[in-house]
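Title: Prediction job returns without error message
Component: structure pipeline
Severity: low
Priority: P3
Assignee: unassigned

Description:
Job completed but the reporter wants confirmation the result is attached to the right record. Sequence as submitted:
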Amino acid sequence: MSQTLTKPWPIGLTAVCLLTLASQAWAVPPIILHEFTFDTETSRLGVTGGFAGIDDLYGLDGTFGIAIGYDQIFDPPGQISLVPFVSFAAVDAVLTGPPGLLGGPGWLGGADLDGLLNLTGLDGTFVHGPDHKGLLFTGVDGQGQPMNVRVSVQHHQLRLVGENAAGCCDMFNYQLDAFADIPYMGDIDKDGHVGITDLNVVLSDFGNTVTPMMGGDVDWDGYIGLTDLNAVLGDWNAGSTDSAGVVVPEPIAVGLVLPGVACWMLRRRG
């Protein structure tokens, strides 16, 4: 419901409007969507329980995305800050085989993965602890039962490990262990080619703590270090220059690049 203001605006309302205009003028970084395809050979979802007492292991076929962006937070009042968020997005995957209790594709063969696990409904956080470095998603599954999924980068692959805590009766228990290839981890600017621009991004923030998954944080641990630099150098000159880039950072001076690489090589030899 909207209404038209016909009286002079109070001073407080004027301040709110000016603050709103200022926030609109302040550019918020765009939401970046990282898209992945499940490795059908290694991705699995274990399903047990239910009223039929099933115990099946399913494959996964399809795609999913992980989106990262920033929310504008007014805290304390009058001050604007950007808080990073992360979420599953564009999940389009189904369960495949093996034959189950009723034959054919199995009890849940062909079922929608997001419908079962509610991946897009989970809340994402960034984790940098001794046991897990990467992303943690928590919430409830499609049955309304507690669900968590941990995401990490491992050897040119993304790994998703999760499980629910189903209650009694006819609830399904889910155990997720899935993988998705990252063809070129060093392709930071997503132009399909690993080269000087990608190296510039890593060297410009080398040794700094950053927002996970942003800029040169190739391994999603929130820190720009040797793992990120190795990913770029390991994929050097890979890919094709024909692909159009989505987000292309401004390169730093080439004069800063070569000394950075030289220092990295000296540290590695030493």
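Comment from assignee: result matches the submitted record. Confidence is low (pLDDT under 50) at residues 1-25, 100-105, 241-258.
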